[in-house]
Amino acid sequence: MAKIFPSLLSADFLNLNEELSNLEAAGVDGVHFDVMDGQFVPNISIGIPVLEAVRRGTSLPIDVHLMIESPEKYIELFAESGADMISVHVEATPHIHRVIQQIKNAKKKAGVVINPGTPVETILPVIDMVDYVLVMTVNPGFGGQAFIESTLTKLKQLSSVKSANNLTFDIEVDGGINDKTVEKVIENGATMLVAGSYFFGHQNYDDAVKQLRG
């Protein structure tokens, strides 16, 4: 069964503590925390003070997705501020191996991320080091985008690499995940689902969880 990590970027920040309580009650597996710097992606989002607040407000695992340039400068800071999992874009640093090591040294789960236009081959040198691979199924930077169908090929390819090499990493998908696309991504190997506007568009989060889990 795929794990569900609602994206807090779509939550009601005025009532964030209540949102976290409702997510826990709905039985989600963790929360996804998007960090954007206005450089690597054309948007600016949330950072350390909000992460610290979320950490105080929930015992759920926090999956921090760094959409920032030079992520190696900030790994320790995010690790110390409450992240349980940290993922970095292969496109954002020439030192992806070092960054994954930094995350591991901080005793956190390490993830590597690829954009829709980035080949799976670019992450093969670190594929045996990571706990999860995040495949962006929309272009990063903004919520509410339509799912990019061609990313299903990447999921299938990653699933084959995983099986052929007897690896155990999770395959996470982020972007356009809803009741229409969830079956396709799971069929092609996804084991972690990030859902933002679709999930928080439900008045009852139990319903969102049921629809994503089928």
Automatic annotation (TrEMBL):
It comes from the Bacteria. Its EC number is 5.1.3.1. Pathway: Carbohydrate degradation. A divalent metal cation binds at residues 32, 34, 65, 174. The keyword Transcription does not apply. Its cofactor is Fe(2+); a divalent metal cation; Co(2+); Mn(2+). Keywords: Carbohydrate metabolism, Cobalt, Isomerase, Manganese, Metal-binding, Zinc. Catalyzes the reversible epimerization of D-ribulose 5-phosphate to D-xylulose 5-phosphate. This is Ribulose-phosphate 3-epimerase. It comes from Staphylococcus lloydii. The lineage of its organism: Bacteria, Bacillati, Bacillota, Bacilli, Bacillales.
